[in-house]
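Repro:
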Amino acid sequence: MDYTILIHQVEEGGFWSEVPVLPGCYSQGESIDETLKNTKEAIEAHLLALREELVAAPIEEGLFIGRVQVEVA
């Protein structure tokens, strides 16, 4: 399964990530590569917990990520 993740840079250094389709699924890392690795592990753990609770893994659909440029006068 593929999941969209959002990676945010932390002002103090490092990064944190979230998985929009899996509420409560977050991770972090000192680099983007570490954050990606840790996020993969977090997703796997999240899905295992759902399986143990007999809850179907959510299928990502209808999620669009875009950018909008605005000017403020």
